[in-house]
């Protein structure tokens, strides 16, 4: 998007952009003439969903958790969103200065766990029985559709529809990948999910949806949550899974990282046996392999990436044993 168009959008919020920097697609850092910094972010949601996100986050902010969201007490925060010439929705939030937490720092990971638990507690109060945009009942269908996608890729590999090295790799390891997917579905059936699903108002929380090191910011004020385009209602186990997955996958599934996250979370809220079982469901599904098989830019569809993904799935086996031991102790 051109500099002029960015300035026009920012102007709708009542501020002037003296400088701007594209962070990545649809996200810009804006600096005003007075030196104040903001984040301009495109939200790929319909207006009703965007209004719901805004309403939920405004309520959560009043309960204390640190969020990168608008403050209606400030002039630039009075307008919930702006619309570009193309009809795209944009939000303007404070630019949170600080650093991303490092999975190599257990102190950082513990802080993320604490921040997520506080967000969940405040979010339950915000919902007050409103379970709009809930994915609580969709776990079976989500796992099933992803498994079907993997199966279709395996079927294509059997006809050598990909390059020969990729086709041979998938033919050789396809049964193992599907075994992990079936194990995840079996874990879900024995997890207690049905009782949770039947009481969504009791068990649902406001779920960030894509927690991980890149969606927390640490500074002298505390731990902020940022980027809320995936906000929805779900079980808290899903959010914990996302933070654990995104924090551990690039660090050879070092369980001490997950332990620090869970320790932090438990400082604020208790976890039940079913919560741990539900976390294991998502961790066991071969999601990294699914991403490599998908048209996902960050994970190119190559033999080396497929091997990397399979190695990751294999490490999760021992990781899950350690998670089960952690559950027994706590």
Automatic annotation (TrEMBL):
GO cellular component: endospore-forming forespore
Pfam families associated with the record: APH (PF01636)
Aminoglycoside phosphotransferase domain sequence ranges: 28-252
Signal peptide segment: none
Domain of life: Bacteria
InterPro entries for this protein: Aminoglycoside_PTrfase, CotS-like, Kinase-like_dom_sf
Record-given protein name: Phosphotransferase
